[in-house]
Amino acid sequence: MNPEQFDGLLFDLDGTLVDTMPLHLASWELAAREFGFGYDADWLYDLGGVPSRKIVDIINSEQGLSLDGERVVQLKNGHYQRLLPQARPFPAMLALLERYADRPLAIGTGSSRINAEQVLRNTGLQAYFPVVITADDVSSHKPNPDTYLLAAQGLGLRPERCLVFEDTPIGRQAALAAGMGCVMVVAGQPVWS
């Protein structure tokens, strides 16, 4: 996938542009200790792009629990907000943004608006993105295509003219379901194939 072949570039945020996944995982681990649910870092990483409230629903279902989703998310997000100043953009992704800064660019994230905006502000990336679509903007989250379709619409582009950068299988599913190309990002590096 060559970005030159597309009119717009869409980016997941956590784990794709910014190294926030360790912060999310640390926050989930603290919440797991406090609420007594099982913690599996790999499993949670694979759920990147799924809003925290839905993750709690999945935990309840898979672990036979009845956790109060709002309380778990509030606690998890509190830990995450305290850790956020540590977040840094991946150097390779920052270089890619700088190279294509003249293109229409958008964020399509499963994070809440408050978290996404704080990450973008703390890292100085907000200037690149006139369109930021968060979990608060859609009712059908990744792997459904709505996040990326709304981002393309916000840029005034047809979906097939957009290239998505993602770090999780769920995010890739969302991009492909939207009819977009997708480049996977592994450990902060785009994997061109």
Automatic annotation (TrEMBL):
Domain of life according to the entry: Bacteria
Stored InterPro entries: B-phosphoglucomutase_hydrolase, HAD-like_sf, HAD-like_SPP, HAD-SF_hydro_IA, HAD_2, HAD_sf, PGP-like_dom2
UniProt cross-references to SUPFAM superfamilies, sorted A to Z: HAD-like
Coiled-coil stretches: none
Keywords, ordered alphabetically: Hydrolase
GO MF annotations in UniProt: hydrolase activity
Family assignment from sequence similarity: Belongs to the HAD-like hydrolase superfamily. CbbY/CbbZ/Gph/YieH family.
PANTHER family with a match to the protein in the record: FRUCTOSE-1-PHOSPHATE PHOSPHATASE, GLYCEROL-1-PHOSPHATE PHOSPHOHYDROLASE 1-RELATED
Protein name: Beta-phosphoglucomutase family hydrolase
Organism: Zobellella iuensis
